[in-house]
Amino acid sequence: MPSIFLIPLFTGLVTGYIFKKSNDEIAYIAGVFAAVSLILSLVLAPWQIQFALLVFVLISTNKLLRKS
User: Are the C-beta atoms of 18 and 30 separated by less than 8 Å?
Assistant: First the structure.
C-alpha cells in the first residue's frame, strides 16, 4: 500500500496545530493550507482507507439521523 498520502496528511495536521495556536492573519492562511492538504491526502489515499472512511461516515450519519 503506497504511503505517499501520509505526507500531506501530516502537513495538514501540523498546519492545523499552528492554526489553533496562532491568532494572527497567518493562522487563516495555515487553516486554508491545512484543509487543502487534508483533502489532498484523502484523494491520494488507497481505496481501502477511502472505503473505511466511507463506511464510517455512513454509519455515523445513520446514527445521527435516528436521534433527530
Answer: yes
- pTM value? 0.64
- Give dist(CA 42, CA 44) in Å, integer: 5
Amino acid at site 57 = V
Whole-angstrom Cα distance, residue 25 to residue 50? Answer: 33
Half-sphere exposure at residue 2, Cβ-oriented, CA atoms within 13 angstroms? 10
| SS3 at position 17 | helix
Residue 28 confidence (pLDDT) above 90: no
What secondary structure, in 3-state letters, does 36-60 show? Answer: HHHHHHHHHCCHHHHHHHHHHHHHH
Return the CA Rg of the chain: 15
